[in-house]
Amino acid sequence: MLDRRDSVIQRDEKLEQLVANLPDHVWQRIASYLNPADVARLSLTTKTFQKKVGGDPLRVLALPENHHHLNLFLSDLDRYYPNHLHCFPCAKFHRRIRKGHERLKTDFVANPLYNCPKVYSSYLPRIRLVHGHQLPYSFIQLAIRHEIYSKNHGIDPELLCQRWRDTETGWTHTTRYTVHDGHLLARVRSQVFAAPGLTQTSMRHLLYDPRDDYLPYFSVCAHWRDGELMRIVKCALSHIPEPPQSYLRQLRSHPMLSRSLAHPNYLAVMCDFCRPARRCPECPTEYLVEVKLTEDKNDAINPFKHALVVTRWSDLGDGSGPTASPEYCAVQGTKADYDSFTHVGRRATAGIFESKMSHAIPGQRMISLNPRNRKLGEEGHGWY
C-alpha cells in the first residue's frame, strides 16, 4: 500500500516538473485560447499552473462582461455548498433560508428560498407550467442536487408534485417530476370537460387565455405556435360524440329513425391525425392529446362527461444554469440550434418518464409536431 502511494506521489512530481519546464509564455499562449472560466480552473489546479498562467484569472472572471463564465465556474463548486444555492442573476451562492423544507407554492405567495435583492422581482429565472403557475429555476436545482449529490443538497422531486383545479377556467392540472441521468423530467397533465359540437369560437374560449397573449390554459413549450398542436387539440374536440337523441326527439325533426343516434357510442374514437403522440423538433418536449370519459363528481344528474386531456413531457435540463443547460434553453425558446430527434434519440422522454413511474410505456407512436418545419409564430393562423 505504501509503495503504491509513493509511486503516485513520484508520478505527480514528474508531471509537475514537466509543467514547470515549459516556458511561461507558452502556457500564457495556451490560456489565450481558453474562456475565462477554463483559465480560472487551470490556475487553481496547482501552484505551478497559477504561476505559469500569470495575472489574476479570478479578477478577470469577476468582470461584468464575464458574467456567464462566472456562473459556469461556480457550477463546478455546487457540490461543496449544500447549505447554499447558486443564484445565477447575482452569480453568487446564497444561504438557504429553510434548508430541506422548501415547498413549491402558488405564484402569488411570497416564497423566497434565500435572501437575494432580486428575489421579489422578475429577474429570477422560471419556466411556465400552465396558466397562472410557474416553476422557479431554484426548485430544478434542488431536485437535481438531491438526486446526484445527497439529501442535504436539495429536496425530493416528489415534493414538487401538485394537483389543483382552476375554478376560473375549469381546467384541472397535475404535475409530476423525476430525475433521470441527472436531468429533471416533468409531466404536466391538464384536462377540462368539453361539450360536443363546439364552434370555433367556443373552442377558443375553452383553450386560450385572452389576457395572457392568447396562451393555452394547458402546458406548452415555446414553439407551440409553429407546429400542429392546436390543430390536433381542435381535431380531438371534434371527435366528442353527440348526446343520445330519443326516438321522440328524432320524430320531431324528421320522419326517419336512427338507432345509432338513440344509442351512440360514448367512447370517443380519434383519427390518425390527432391520435399519435407528438414531439417538438426544437426542444425535448412531447405531447399526447386524448378524449376520455370522466366522472364529474359535482354533477349529480350527468356524472359522466367527456374530457379533453393534454399531457406534456419535458426534459428541463441538468440544472447547470438557465443559460447553460441546452435542454432548458431549448424549452424556453432561447436556443435555436437544438434538434430533439438527434439529442433525445429513438427512446422518447415520455417513455423514459412513464417506465420509471408506472413501468408502462405509452402505446401511441411518436411523430413530429412540426413535420413541415414551418416557423411562422404569430404570423401563422393554424394555432388560433
From TrEMBL:
Domain F-box residues, every copy: 16-50
Organism domain of life: Eukaryota
Coiled-coil portions: none
Name the UniProt record assigns to this protein: F-box domain-containing protein
Organism from which the protein derives: Westerdykella ornata
